[in-house]
Amino acid sequence: MISYDMPLYRPPSEGNNLIIQATLGCHFNQCSFCSMYKQKRFTIRPLETVFAEITEAARAWPDAQRVFLADGDALTLPTDHLLAILEKLAKAFPRLSRVSCYANPSDILRKQETELARLREHKLNLLYVGIESGSGTILKKITKGASPRSIRAALEKAHNCRLKVSATVILGLGGKSRSEEHIQGTIELLSRAPVTYLSTLQLFLETGERQHFLDKFGEPFCPQDDQAILREQRRLVAGIEPPNPIIFRSNHASNALALAGNLPRDRERLLARIDQALTYGEQLRPRQLRGL
């Protein structure tokens, strides 16, 4: 089977799917909270190398139906390059139904709607987009390279091209002092911009990135405990009035509390689960089991 260039990351929902590394590392790689690709230099892998791995994977798993294109932001690839990979995947896997990848908001905005439509026609139909926060100030402090306005524009563009978006928000990203600003801005953004899926992560700073994050934040940062994180999650779930129904999850390993439901349909049930955790502290993931 394929020998991956490690470390290899993928969303929880891609755990049982085939992963093909179209790129190595992350093209942007400046987010202060993220250590995932700091040890990798961004590289566009040659098509012949990617094609060889697709052929090898097809021999081992000919019935694969879903493929995730790693590493950090495969959508940054030129459209013709991506289309060549998608065409190879379609030939190698007759039952292929979905291809997905991480995408920065800037990746989406750089491509023309006609390009995004062509990619969707070739089964790249799900993008994982890190929103992180709806606060412009916090986005600057974490060096996200995006603003609430550009994120909204990217999400609307993807929606107009009939691409599904799985968005992520990081609880605790504003610390104690900017918690209200973080959650309120995120509520406002997600109440205007259409997404198909929404997941929360919990701020998790690896040792090597902690000081870098604090330096970039530019003011005293006081981390929040599980109770404060749950209160942020509660405010988020209670406040979002999405333009389209959202499939909501908090199943990433960083989260203290795993939740699953649809918004707004399951709002009251989700809030009851959070309230139970706030009151009794039950069903929280042990700290030693949390991570990226």
From TrEMBL:
Keyword list, A-Z: Iron, Iron-sulfur, Metal-binding, S-adenosyl-L-methionine
Family matches, as InterPro entries: BchE-like, Elp3/MiaA/NifB-like_rSAM, rSAM, rSAM_horseshoe, rSAM_sf
Signal peptide segment: none
Annotated Pfam families: Radical_SAM (PF04055)
Cofactor(s) recorded in Swiss-Prot or TrEMBL: [4Fe-4S] cluster
Gene3D superfamilies linked: tm_1862 like domain
Ranges for domain Radical SAM core: 10-241
The keyword rRNA-binding is assigned to this record: no
Record GO terms (molecular function): catalytic activity; iron-sulfur cluster binding; metal ion binding
Protein name: Radical SAM protein
Species this protein is from: Sedimenticola selenatireducens
